[in-house]
Write a structure and sequence with these properties.
Blueprint lengths: L2 E5 L3 H11 L4 E5 L2 H10 L4 E5 L1 E2 L2 E2 L4 H7 L4 E6 L4 H9 L4 E4 L4 H28 L4 E2 L2 E2 L3 H13 L6 E4 L6 H10 L8 E5 L5 H9 E2 L11 E2 L1 H4 L4 E5 L6 H13 L1 E2 L8 E2 L3 E6 L3 H7 L4 H7 L2 E4 L10 H15 L6 E2 L1 H9 L5 H15 L4 E2 L6 H4 L20 H15 L4 H8 L3 H11 L5
Parallel strand pairs: 1-2, 1-3, 3-6, 6-7, 10-17, 10-18, 11-14, 14-17, 19-20
Antiparallel strand pairs: 4-5, 8-9, 12-13, 15-16
Keywords: ATP-binding, Nucleotide-binding, Phosphoprotein, Transcription, Transcription regulation
Pfam family, one: AAA_lid_14
Protein name: Sigma-54-dependent Fis family transcriptional regulator
Protein backbone atom coordinates (compact mmCIF):
# COMPACT_ATOMS: atom_id res chain seq x y z
CA UNK A 1 0.00 0.00 0.00
CA UNK A 2 1.36 3.43 -0.98
CA UNK A 3 1.81 6.11 1.66
CA UNK A 4 0.38 9.62 1.22
CA UNK A 5 1.25 12.77 3.20
CA UNK A 6 -1.06 15.77 3.58
CA UNK A 7 0.44 19.12 4.63
CA UNK A 8 -2.22 21.78 5.19
CA UNK A 9 -2.68 24.33 7.97
CA UNK A 10 -6.44 23.66 8.08
CA UNK A 11 -7.05 20.67 10.33
CA UNK A 12 -10.49 20.14 8.79
CA UNK A 13 -8.98 19.60 5.34
CA UNK A 14 -6.39 17.20 6.75
CA UNK A 15 -9.13 15.22 8.52
CA UNK A 16 -11.48 15.08 5.54
CA UNK A 17 -8.71 14.00 3.14
CA UNK A 18 -7.50 11.32 5.57
CA UNK A 19 -11.05 9.97 5.85
CA UNK A 20 -11.48 9.98 2.05
CA UNK A 21 -8.17 8.29 1.24
CA UNK A 22 -7.50 5.91 4.15
CA UNK A 23 -9.14 2.91 2.43
CA UNK A 24 -6.70 3.12 -0.51
CA UNK A 25 -3.51 4.42 1.10
CA UNK A 26 -1.64 4.71 4.35
CA UNK A 27 -2.26 8.39 5.09
CA UNK A 28 -0.18 10.80 7.18
CA UNK A 29 -1.32 14.35 7.84
CA UNK A 30 0.14 17.40 9.55
CA UNK A 31 -0.44 21.15 9.80
CA UNK A 32 3.29 21.78 10.38
CA UNK A 33 5.76 22.10 7.45
CA UNK A 34 8.64 21.08 9.74
CA UNK A 35 6.81 17.95 10.86
CA UNK A 36 5.94 17.23 7.23
CA UNK A 37 9.62 17.21 6.25
CA UNK A 38 10.35 14.92 9.22
CA UNK A 39 7.66 12.45 8.07
CA UNK A 40 9.16 12.35 4.55
CA UNK A 41 12.56 11.60 6.07
CA UNK A 42 11.15 8.76 8.17
CA UNK A 43 8.52 7.19 5.92
CA UNK A 44 8.51 6.07 2.27
CA UNK A 45 6.02 8.61 0.94
CA UNK A 46 4.63 8.12 -2.57
CA UNK A 47 2.84 11.47 -2.92
CA UNK A 48 2.48 14.70 -0.92
CA UNK A 49 -0.63 16.89 -1.03
CA UNK A 50 0.88 20.28 -0.19
CA UNK A 51 -1.07 23.46 0.56
CA UNK A 52 0.38 26.51 -1.17
CA UNK A 53 -0.01 28.74 1.90
CA UNK A 54 0.62 27.27 5.34
CA UNK A 55 0.43 29.69 8.28
CA UNK A 56 2.84 32.27 6.96
CA UNK A 57 4.97 29.79 5.01
CA UNK A 58 5.04 29.72 1.21
CA UNK A 59 4.20 26.12 0.37
CA UNK A 60 6.17 26.30 -2.89
CA UNK A 61 9.35 26.91 -0.88
CA UNK A 62 8.94 23.43 0.64
CA UNK A 63 9.01 21.63 -2.71
CA UNK A 64 12.83 21.63 -3.20
CA UNK A 65 13.35 20.36 0.36
CA UNK A 66 10.78 17.59 -0.03
CA UNK A 67 12.29 16.39 -3.31
CA UNK A 68 15.84 16.60 -1.95
CA UNK A 69 14.87 14.24 0.88
CA UNK A 70 12.81 11.94 -1.38
CA UNK A 71 13.39 12.51 -5.13
CA UNK A 72 10.88 9.79 -6.08
CA UNK A 73 7.99 11.41 -4.20
CA UNK A 74 5.32 13.24 -6.22
CA UNK A 75 4.27 16.66 -4.94
CA UNK A 76 0.73 17.85 -5.71
CA UNK A 77 0.10 21.47 -4.78
CA UNK A 78 -3.31 22.52 -3.41
CA UNK A 79 -4.36 26.16 -3.65
CA UNK A 80 -7.39 28.39 -3.34
CA UNK A 81 -5.55 31.06 -5.31
CA UNK A 82 -4.89 29.19 -8.52
CA UNK A 83 -3.32 31.17 -11.35
CA UNK A 84 -1.38 30.08 -14.39
CA UNK A 85 1.74 31.78 -13.04
CA UNK A 86 1.68 30.00 -9.67
CA UNK A 87 0.97 26.67 -11.36
CA UNK A 88 3.92 27.14 -13.72
CA UNK A 89 6.17 28.09 -10.81
CA UNK A 90 5.12 24.97 -8.91
CA UNK A 91 5.89 22.75 -11.90
CA UNK A 92 9.27 24.44 -12.39
CA UNK A 93 10.16 23.64 -8.79
CA UNK A 94 9.36 19.97 -9.40
CA UNK A 95 5.68 19.60 -8.51
CA UNK A 96 3.83 16.86 -10.39
CA UNK A 97 0.57 18.84 -10.68
CA UNK A 98 -1.76 21.16 -8.78
CA UNK A 99 -5.35 21.15 -7.46
CA UNK A 100 -7.63 24.11 -6.82
CA UNK A 101 -9.80 24.41 -3.72
CA UNK A 102 -12.53 23.52 -2.99
CA UNK A 103 -11.21 20.05 -3.73
CA UNK A 104 -13.06 17.50 -5.82
CA UNK A 105 -12.32 14.17 -4.13
CA UNK A 106 -12.64 12.17 -7.35
CA UNK A 107 -10.12 14.50 -8.98
CA UNK A 108 -7.81 14.09 -5.97
CA UNK A 109 -7.92 10.28 -6.20
CA UNK A 110 -7.34 10.29 -9.98
CA UNK A 111 -4.39 12.67 -9.70
CA UNK A 112 -2.77 10.69 -6.88
CA UNK A 113 -3.09 7.46 -8.88
CA UNK A 114 -1.61 9.12 -11.96
CA UNK A 115 1.30 10.51 -9.95
CA UNK A 116 2.06 7.12 -8.38
CA UNK A 117 1.83 5.41 -11.77
CA UNK A 118 4.16 8.05 -13.20
CA UNK A 119 6.66 7.33 -10.41
CA UNK A 120 6.45 3.60 -11.12
CA UNK A 121 7.19 4.26 -14.80
CA UNK A 122 10.15 6.48 -13.88
CA UNK A 123 11.50 3.73 -11.65
CA UNK A 124 11.08 1.15 -14.43
CA UNK A 125 12.85 3.42 -16.93
CA UNK A 126 15.75 3.89 -14.48
CA UNK A 127 15.95 0.12 -13.96
CA UNK A 128 15.93 -0.53 -17.71
CA UNK A 129 18.59 2.14 -18.20
CA UNK A 130 20.79 0.38 -15.64
CA UNK A 131 20.31 -2.89 -17.54
CA UNK A 132 20.87 -1.45 -21.02
CA UNK A 133 23.54 1.10 -20.10
CA UNK A 134 25.34 -0.17 -17.00
CA UNK A 135 27.92 1.89 -15.14
CA UNK A 136 30.95 0.15 -16.66
CA UNK A 137 30.01 0.99 -20.22
CA UNK A 138 30.31 3.66 -22.89
CA UNK A 139 26.90 4.58 -24.32
CA UNK A 140 25.78 0.97 -23.90
CA UNK A 141 29.03 -0.73 -24.98
CA UNK A 142 30.06 -2.78 -21.94
CA UNK A 143 33.63 -3.13 -20.77
CA UNK A 144 36.35 -1.78 -18.53
CA UNK A 145 39.31 -3.80 -19.76
CA UNK A 146 42.36 -1.98 -21.13
CA UNK A 147 41.41 -2.91 -24.70
CA UNK A 148 37.91 -1.48 -24.33
CA UNK A 149 39.12 1.70 -22.62
CA UNK A 150 41.35 2.29 -25.64
CA UNK A 151 38.34 1.75 -27.93
CA UNK A 152 36.18 4.15 -25.90
CA UNK A 153 38.91 6.78 -26.07
CA UNK A 154 39.04 6.49 -29.85
CA UNK A 155 35.23 6.63 -30.19
CA UNK A 156 35.25 9.78 -28.06
CA UNK A 157 37.61 11.43 -30.54
CA UNK A 158 35.85 10.42 -33.75
CA UNK A 159 32.16 10.56 -32.83
CA UNK A 160 31.69 14.29 -33.46
CA UNK A 161 33.64 14.59 -36.69
CA UNK A 162 32.53 13.63 -40.20
CA UNK A 163 35.55 11.60 -41.26
CA UNK A 164 34.94 8.12 -42.64
CA UNK A 165 35.49 5.16 -40.33
CA UNK A 166 36.47 1.59 -41.17
CA UNK A 167 35.55 -0.66 -38.27
CA UNK A 168 37.37 -3.98 -38.23
CA UNK A 169 36.85 -6.98 -36.01
CA UNK A 170 35.69 -10.57 -35.96
CA UNK A 171 32.06 -11.53 -36.39
CA UNK A 172 30.03 -10.93 -33.23
CA UNK A 173 32.31 -8.33 -31.64
CA UNK A 174 29.78 -5.49 -31.90
CA UNK A 175 30.92 -3.48 -34.94
CA UNK A 176 27.40 -2.19 -35.69
CA UNK A 177 26.98 -1.16 -32.06
CA UNK A 178 30.15 0.94 -32.33
CA UNK A 179 28.81 2.54 -35.52
CA UNK A 180 25.48 3.35 -33.83
CA UNK A 181 27.24 4.95 -30.87
CA UNK A 182 29.35 7.12 -33.19
CA UNK A 183 26.10 8.27 -34.82
CA UNK A 184 23.97 8.67 -31.68
CA UNK A 185 26.69 10.56 -29.81
CA UNK A 186 27.72 12.61 -32.87
CA UNK A 187 26.61 15.74 -34.72
CA UNK A 188 24.17 13.80 -36.95
CA UNK A 189 22.30 12.18 -34.04
CA UNK A 190 18.95 13.80 -34.98
CA UNK A 191 19.18 12.47 -38.54
CA UNK A 192 18.61 8.89 -39.80
CA UNK A 193 20.94 5.95 -39.18
CA UNK A 194 20.73 3.21 -41.82
CA UNK A 195 22.55 -0.13 -41.83
CA UNK A 196 23.06 -2.32 -44.88
CA UNK A 197 24.73 -5.73 -44.84
CA UNK A 198 26.46 -6.05 -48.21
CA UNK A 199 26.76 -9.82 -47.82
CA UNK A 200 23.08 -10.40 -47.04
CA UNK A 201 21.62 -8.89 -50.23
CA UNK A 202 21.88 -10.59 -53.64
CA UNK A 203 24.23 -8.84 -56.04
CA UNK A 204 21.36 -8.15 -58.46
CA UNK A 205 19.48 -6.18 -55.79
CA UNK A 206 22.37 -4.51 -53.99
CA UNK A 207 22.78 -1.68 -56.49
CA UNK A 208 19.10 -0.77 -56.19
CA UNK A 209 19.29 -0.88 -52.38
CA UNK A 210 22.26 1.46 -52.41
CA UNK A 211 21.35 3.97 -55.10
CA UNK A 212 17.64 3.41 -55.83
CA UNK A 213 15.86 2.97 -59.16
CA UNK A 214 13.23 4.58 -61.38
CA UNK A 215 9.95 2.97 -62.36
CA UNK A 216 10.51 0.58 -65.27
CA UNK A 217 14.30 0.59 -64.86
CA UNK A 218 14.31 -3.22 -64.94
CA UNK A 219 11.90 -6.15 -64.85
CA UNK A 220 9.89 -5.93 -61.64
CA UNK A 221 10.57 -2.22 -61.04
CA UNK A 222 6.89 -1.27 -60.81
CA UNK A 223 7.52 1.96 -58.92
CA UNK A 224 10.28 4.36 -58.07
CA UNK A 225 12.44 3.41 -55.09
CA UNK A 226 14.82 5.59 -53.11
CA UNK A 227 18.17 4.02 -52.29
CA UNK A 228 19.71 4.04 -48.85
CA UNK A 229 21.77 7.14 -49.65
CA UNK A 230 18.66 9.22 -50.40
CA UNK A 231 16.75 7.78 -47.46
CA UNK A 232 19.58 8.63 -45.07
CA UNK A 233 20.29 12.16 -46.34
CA UNK A 234 21.87 14.14 -43.50
CA UNK A 235 22.51 11.05 -41.40
CA UNK A 236 24.88 8.09 -41.18
CA UNK A 237 25.11 4.99 -43.39
CA UNK A 238 26.67 1.84 -41.96
CA UNK A 239 27.90 -0.53 -44.67
CA UNK A 240 28.57 -3.84 -42.98
CA UNK A 241 30.69 -6.58 -44.61
CA UNK A 242 31.95 -4.05 -47.15
CA UNK A 243 34.53 -6.60 -48.30
CA UNK A 244 31.73 -8.64 -49.88
CA UNK A 245 30.70 -5.86 -52.28
CA UNK A 246 31.26 -6.73 -55.98
CA UNK A 247 34.00 -4.78 -57.76
CA UNK A 248 31.67 -3.02 -60.22
CA UNK A 249 29.61 -1.65 -57.31
CA UNK A 250 32.77 -0.63 -55.50
CA UNK A 251 33.50 1.70 -58.42
CA UNK A 252 30.02 3.26 -58.17
CA UNK A 253 30.33 3.63 -54.39
CA UNK A 254 33.69 5.36 -54.84
CA UNK A 255 32.11 7.86 -57.22
CA UNK A 256 29.27 8.56 -54.74
CA UNK A 257 31.80 9.24 -51.99
CA UNK A 258 33.88 11.52 -54.21
CA UNK A 259 31.05 13.43 -55.90
CA UNK A 260 28.55 13.29 -53.01
CA UNK A 261 25.76 12.53 -55.45
CA UNK A 262 23.85 9.45 -56.61
CA UNK A 263 22.23 8.50 -59.89
CA UNK A 264 19.39 5.96 -59.44
CA UNK A 265 19.21 3.02 -61.88
CA UNK A 266 17.28 4.08 -64.99
CA UNK A 267 17.75 7.81 -64.35
CA UNK A 268 20.09 10.47 -65.69
CA UNK A 269 19.37 12.90 -62.87
CA UNK A 270 22.04 13.38 -60.22
CA UNK A 271 20.84 13.76 -56.64
CA UNK A 272 23.01 15.53 -54.07
CA UNK A 273 23.48 13.59 -50.85
CA UNK A 274 25.05 14.43 -47.50
CA UNK A 275 25.88 11.37 -45.40
CA UNK A 276 28.61 10.07 -43.15
CA UNK A 277 29.79 6.65 -44.24
CA UNK A 278 30.94 4.09 -41.68
CA UNK A 279 32.05 0.77 -43.14
CA UNK A 280 32.88 -2.49 -41.38
CA UNK A 281 34.49 -5.78 -42.25
CA UNK A 282 35.75 -8.97 -40.64
CA UNK A 283 38.24 -9.40 -43.47
CA UNK A 284 41.74 -7.99 -43.88
CA UNK A 285 40.93 -5.48 -46.63
CA UNK A 286 44.60 -4.64 -47.17
CA UNK A 287 45.17 -8.26 -48.16
CA UNK A 288 42.05 -8.17 -50.34
CA UNK A 289 43.50 -5.14 -52.14
CA UNK A 290 46.74 -7.02 -52.84
CA UNK A 291 44.69 -9.92 -54.25
CA UNK A 292 42.74 -7.58 -56.50
CA UNK A 293 39.46 -8.40 -54.72
CA UNK A 294 38.98 -4.87 -53.35
CA UNK A 295 39.68 -1.52 -54.97
CA UNK A 296 42.70 0.23 -53.50
CA UNK A 297 41.26 3.73 -54.06
CA UNK A 298 38.02 2.81 -52.27
CA UNK A 299 40.00 1.23 -49.43
CA UNK A 300 41.81 4.47 -48.73
CA UNK A 301 38.59 6.48 -49.06
CA UNK A 302 36.89 4.34 -46.43
CA UNK A 303 39.86 3.77 -44.14
CA UNK A 304 40.34 7.40 -43.11
CA UNK A 305 40.22 6.43 -39.43
CA UNK A 306 40.52 2.70 -38.63
CA UNK A 307 38.65 1.46 -35.55
CA UNK A 308 39.38 -2.07 -34.31
CA UNK A 309 36.92 -3.89 -32.02
CA UNK A 310 38.80 -6.55 -30.01
CA UNK A 311 37.53 -10.15 -29.82
CA UNK A 312 36.15 -11.36 -26.49
CA UNK A 313 39.13 -13.64 -25.85
CA UNK A 314 41.37 -10.52 -25.79
CA UNK A 315 39.15 -8.81 -23.20
CA UNK A 316 38.28 -11.80 -21.01
CA UNK A 317 38.36 -9.57 -17.91
CA UNK A 318 35.07 -8.12 -19.21
CA UNK A 319 33.36 -11.52 -19.03
CA UNK A 320 31.81 -10.97 -15.55
CA UNK A 321 30.39 -7.59 -16.65
CA UNK A 322 28.98 -8.97 -19.88
CA UNK A 323 27.60 -12.06 -18.15
CA UNK A 324 25.86 -9.95 -15.50
CA UNK A 325 24.43 -7.67 -18.20
CA UNK A 326 22.99 -10.50 -20.32
CA UNK A 327 21.61 -12.27 -17.25
CA UNK A 328 19.69 -9.08 -16.43
CA UNK A 329 18.55 -8.58 -20.02
CA UNK A 330 17.24 -12.12 -20.51
CA UNK A 331 15.99 -12.41 -16.94
CA UNK A 332 13.86 -9.34 -17.62
CA UNK A 333 12.81 -10.57 -21.06
CA UNK A 334 11.86 -14.06 -19.88
CA UNK A 335 10.38 -13.03 -16.53
CA UNK A 336 13.08 -14.68 -14.39
CA UNK A 337 14.64 -12.48 -11.71
CA UNK A 338 17.80 -13.15 -9.71
CA UNK A 339 19.34 -15.60 -12.19
CA UNK A 340 23.07 -16.15 -11.72
CA UNK A 341 25.79 -18.64 -12.65
CA UNK A 342 27.32 -21.23 -10.36
CA UNK A 343 31.13 -20.81 -10.23
CA UNK A 344 31.58 -24.13 -12.05
CA UNK A 345 29.53 -22.82 -14.99
CA UNK A 346 31.49 -19.55 -14.97
CA UNK A 347 34.67 -21.62 -14.99
CA UNK A 348 33.51 -23.30 -18.22
CA UNK A 349 32.78 -19.89 -19.77
CA UNK A 350 36.23 -18.59 -18.78
CA UNK A 351 37.86 -21.55 -20.51
CA UNK A 352 35.89 -21.09 -23.72
CA UNK A 353 37.59 -19.25 -26.60
CA UNK A 354 34.33 -17.65 -27.88
CA UNK A 355 34.86 -17.82 -31.65
CA UNK A 356 31.45 -16.11 -31.95
CA UNK A 357 32.51 -13.40 -29.49
CA UNK A 358 29.93 -11.33 -27.58
CA UNK A 359 27.08 -12.52 -29.82
CA UNK A 360 27.90 -16.12 -28.88
CA UNK A 361 27.99 -15.25 -25.17
CA UNK A 362 24.60 -13.55 -25.51
CA UNK A 363 23.14 -16.66 -27.16
CA UNK A 364 24.65 -18.96 -24.50
CA UNK A 365 23.09 -16.94 -21.68
CA UNK A 366 19.70 -16.66 -23.38
CA UNK A 367 19.74 -20.46 -23.83
CA UNK A 368 20.63 -21.06 -20.18
CA UNK A 369 18.07 -18.61 -18.76
CA UNK A 370 15.29 -19.84 -21.06
CA UNK A 371 15.71 -23.57 -20.34
CA UNK A 372 16.75 -23.59 -16.69
CA UNK A 373 14.18 -24.37 -14.00
CA UNK A 374 16.27 -22.69 -11.30
CA UNK A 375 17.73 -19.23 -10.69
CA UNK A 376 21.15 -20.82 -10.15
CA UNK A 377 22.51 -21.75 -13.58
CA UNK A 378 24.84 -24.73 -13.50
CA UNK A 379 27.00 -26.51 -16.07
CA UNK A 380 24.09 -28.70 -17.19
CA UNK A 381 22.15 -25.53 -18.10
CA UNK A 382 24.75 -24.55 -20.70
CA UNK A 383 24.59 -25.63 -24.37
CA UNK A 384 25.81 -29.21 -24.93
CA UNK A 385 29.04 -28.19 -26.66
CA UNK A 386 30.02 -26.23 -23.54
CA UNK A 387 28.96 -28.97 -21.15
CA UNK A 388 31.49 -31.23 -22.81
CA UNK A 389 34.26 -28.80 -21.84
CA UNK A 390 33.43 -29.36 -18.18
CA UNK A 391 34.66 -32.95 -18.52
CA UNK A 392 37.88 -32.18 -20.38
CA UNK A 393 39.97 -31.68 -17.25
CA UNK A 394 42.51 -34.40 -16.80
CA UNK A 395 42.83 -33.94 -13.06
CA UNK A 396 42.41 -31.50 -10.24
CA UNK A 397 45.76 -29.84 -10.99
CA UNK A 398 44.13 -27.90 -13.79
CA UNK A 399 42.47 -25.80 -11.09
CA UNK A 400 40.03 -22.94 -11.50
CA UNK A 401 40.50 -19.80 -13.58
CA UNK A 402 40.60 -16.59 -11.49
CA UNK A 403 40.46 -13.34 -13.50
CA UNK A 404 42.94 -10.67 -12.44
CA UNK A 405 40.12 -8.18 -11.75
CA UNK A 406 38.69 -10.22 -8.82
CA UNK A 407 39.14 -8.98 -5.25
CA UNK A 408 40.82 -11.27 -2.71
CA UNK A 409 37.42 -12.14 -1.19
CA UNK A 410 35.92 -12.92 -4.62
CA UNK A 411 38.92 -15.10 -5.50
CA UNK A 412 38.57 -16.98 -2.21
CA UNK A 413 34.87 -17.54 -2.90
CA UNK A 414 35.54 -18.93 -6.39
CA UNK A 415 38.30 -21.25 -5.13
CA UNK A 416 36.30 -22.64 -2.18
CA UNK A 417 33.19 -23.27 -4.30
CA UNK A 418 35.38 -24.94 -6.94
CA UNK A 419 36.80 -27.27 -4.28
CA UNK A 420 33.28 -28.01 -3.03
CA UNK A 421 32.23 -29.01 -6.53
CA UNK A 422 35.29 -31.29 -6.96
CA UNK A 423 34.30 -33.00 -3.71
CA UNK A 424 30.74 -33.44 -5.01
CA UNK A 425 29.36 -31.17 -2.29
CA UNK A 426 30.88 -33.26 0.54
CA UNK A 427 31.78 -30.67 3.17
CA UNK A 428 34.07 -32.79 5.32
CA UNK A 429 36.19 -33.78 2.30
CA UNK A 430 36.19 -30.17 1.11
CA UNK A 431 37.42 -28.92 4.49
CA UNK A 432 40.18 -31.55 4.48
CA UNK A 433 41.22 -30.59 0.95
CA UNK A 434 41.38 -26.94 1.99
CA UNK A 435 43.12 -27.87 5.27
CA UNK A 436 40.61 -25.92 7.35
CA UNK A 437 38.08 -27.03 9.98
CA UNK A 438 34.54 -28.01 9.05
CA UNK A 439 33.30 -25.10 11.15
CA UNK A 440 35.60 -22.73 9.28
CA UNK A 441 34.24 -24.03 5.97
CA UNK A 442 30.66 -23.71 7.21
CA UNK A 443 31.27 -20.08 8.22
CA UNK A 444 32.71 -19.25 4.81
CA UNK A 445 29.88 -20.98 2.95
CA UNK A 446 27.33 -19.09 5.05
CA UNK A 447 29.17 -15.91 4.08
CA UNK A 448 29.43 -16.71 0.38
CA UNK A 449 26.08 -18.50 0.01
CA UNK A 450 23.80 -16.94 2.65
CA UNK A 451 20.74 -18.72 1.27
CA UNK A 452 22.35 -22.15 1.71
CA UNK A 453 23.04 -23.97 4.99
Amino acid sequence: MHSILIIDDEQAICTSLMFALEDQYQVFATTSPVEGLAIVRKEKIGAVLLDMRIAGVDGLSLIPGLLEISPKTSVIVMTAFGTIETSVNAMKLGAYHYLTKPLNLDEVRILIEKSLHFNDLKHEVERLHEVLRPEDSYAGIIGKSHAMKNLFGLIDKVKRIDSGLLITGESGTGKELVAKVCHEEGIRQRKPFSALNCAAIPETLLESELFGHEKGAFTGAFQRKEGIFEQTHGGTIFLDEIGEMPLHLQAKLLRVIQEREVVPIGSNRRKQIDVRIIAATNRNLFEEVSKGAFREDLYYRLNVIPVHVPPLRERIDDLPLLTHHFLQVYGLKLGKTGVHFHPSAMDVLYRHSFPGNVRELSNIIEYAVALSNDTLLNVHDLPVYLQERAFERVNDKEGVFLPSMLTLEEAEREFILHKLQLCNGHRKKTAEALEISERGLRDKLNKFLPSKD
